[in-house]
């Protein structure tokens, strides 16, 4: 993930067995008592990574509770993002003065069923997947890019974005993606200057697909 984001964003990654750590009381309260062990482990790994990333920026270790919608509540003046999948967890944190929003997603690298492809992909994205070089599950890259886009969009705009509300174009030569947000969603946004285009980077290995994107604070786009 480090290579997928600008230097101003601090990135911390945890892979087993490096998952352990402590939750702060405010975080444990968000998680509750009735969650399965795997959910507690993933949530904790995310918070451990978040504090490691904050430390890289010279920030003190503080709680990162979750809102009612499950989105992390970052300390004032900071923005961040968390992702976890089997065997991998990462958090990224930036200063709000430099970074408007950051999103990141990791997925297992596997083929999606035709049904899931249709739920995730617009027809243009399905056609794109058929054209791109073999050996990569391109619909999974599109899926991950869309989750990243949602993690960028939602904290600043506050509204839901469905999988068909962004058109993702993938460039394998540069390992980048460009997501164009549906004009109706942009028009409906209740903030000034909602993002209309979100660009990011991706990385693919035999096990994982990773995507990340950050908006610079001064661009306002
Ligand atoms: C929220 C969502 C993006 C999380 O992605 P995921 O692949 O299921 O899981 P990940 O491990 O990558 O990310 C989970 C983390 O996302 C973060 N998250 C949850 N809701 C979030 C939100 N609304 N905004 C930003 N981050 C959010 C949390 O930190 C969560 O981890 P935690 O609960 O342990 O703190 C996904 O569950 C979802 O709701 N997707 C539908 C919306 C969407 O993606 N639309 C596509 C728009 S083009």
Written description of the protein model:
The protein has 221 residues and is of the alpha+beta class. The protein has two domains: 2-97, Ribosomal Protein L22, Chain A; 104-216, Ribosomal Protein L22, Chain A. Helices cover 31% and strands 27% of the residues. It has six helices and eight strands, in the order βααβββαααββαββ. The chain has helices spanning 25-31, 37-56, 114-120, 123-131, 138-157, 183-188, and strands at 10-14, 78-85, 88-95, 99-108, 166-171, 176-181, 197-204, 208-216. The strands form two sheets. Strands 4-8-7-6-5 form a five-stranded antiparallel beta sheet. The mean pLDDT is 95. The structure holds coenzyme A. Coenzyme A binds at residues 42-43, 46, 66, 69-72, 82-84, 105, 146-147, 149-151, 154-155, 161-163, 165-166. One of its GO terms (biological process) is enterobactin biosynthetic process. Its cofactor is Mg(2+). This is 4'-phosphopantetheinyl transferase superfamily protein. GO terms for molecular function: holo-[acyl-carrier-protein] synthase activity; magnesium ion binding.
């Amino acid at each position: 993930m480090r290579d997928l984001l600008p230097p101003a964003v601090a990135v911390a990654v945890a892979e087993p067995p490096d998952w352990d750590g402590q939750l702060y009381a405010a975080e444990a309260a968000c998680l509750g008592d009735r969650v399965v062990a795997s959910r507690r482990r993933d949530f904790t790994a995310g918070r451990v990574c978040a504090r490691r990333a904050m430390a890289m920026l010279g920030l003190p270790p503080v709680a990162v509770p979750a809102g009612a919608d499950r989105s992390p509540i970052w300390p004032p003046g900071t923005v961040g993002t968390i992702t976890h999948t089997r065997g991998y967890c990462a958090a990224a944190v930036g200063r709000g003065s430099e970074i408007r929003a950051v999103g990141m997603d990791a997925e297992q690298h596997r083929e999606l069923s035709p049904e899931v492809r249709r739920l995730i992909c617009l027809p243009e994205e399905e056609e794109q997947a058929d054209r791109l070089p073999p050996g990569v599950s391109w619909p999974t890259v599109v899926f991950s890019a869309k989750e990243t886009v949602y993690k960028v969009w939602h904290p600043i705009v506050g509204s839901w974005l469905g999988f068909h509300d962004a058109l993702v174009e993938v460039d394998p030569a540069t390992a980048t993606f460009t997501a164009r947000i549906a004009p109706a969603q942009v028009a409906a946004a209740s903030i000034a200057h909602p993002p209309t285009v979100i660009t990011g980077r991706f990385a693919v290995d035999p096990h994982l697909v990773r995507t990340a994107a950050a908006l610079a604070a001064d661009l306002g786009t």
